[in-house]
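User: I'm curious whether this sequence folds into something compact or stays loose and floppy. Could you predict its structure so I can see for myself?
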Amino acid sequence: MNLLSRYVGRGFWRRLRKRVLPNLWVLATTWRIRKCRCCERLALHLQFGPDEEYCKCVRCTANLRYEMQAEYLRDHYDLGALDILELDPNSCLRPILSRARSYVRTYFRFGHAVGARRADGSLMQDITSLTFDDASVDLIVSSDVLEHVPDLEAAFRESFRVLRPGGSHVFTVPFEPSTVRRAVLEQGTVRHLVTPPEYHADPLDPGGILAFWHLGPDLQDAFGDSGLVFELVKGPEGRRRSVVWRARKAI
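Assistant: Here's the prediction. I'll summarize afterward.
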């Protein structure tokens, strides 16, 4: 057991104890076989928690928000004709988005050099200060990323800058009743505006990641100054009322 513990790391056992074991009752009662809306294959879907966020396709790992996003992208875009930027190095949308004319996967970590390339080919990028040229991207895709960006106004301005006219940032964020800033980053220090602080699961950090924002149906009022036009294009669906947003750069 000691050798196994050193091999998988402490983070594995922490996640097992806090996330998996308390929800084994769900797994015992909640599973089904159906066609996945992401990978479009008949697959077993297992639920490891209280709602659809924790119900995943065993073939592609998509949960409800990824399935909704995949379905929207497949139905509304000729992906093979687009230059696409995804703010996720390992998302289950990769098989779909890799059909693009060009497809760049990115990750973000404080302290990493902007533009650095990981062994898996993904680039270190900051959505508030991208290294891409003006009007060089047709589509930006992100899933439950933007609520963790301290300067979200800058992120949407940067999306507007790099998108071509008519291009869009298609994204998901947890759907809240209204947009509320929960924390700010001041000279490298987090100041909480709402307590208690809210952390979401992060595959790159066992400690989780802070939610700086709650984002609701008023995104146009909150961030329309970026130049983007915000539209709720799919949903809500499920217990969490999952939705897909499109922030479009008008022609």
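Summary: The chain has two domains: 2-57, 64-249. Residues 52 and 238 are 7 Å apart (CA to CA).
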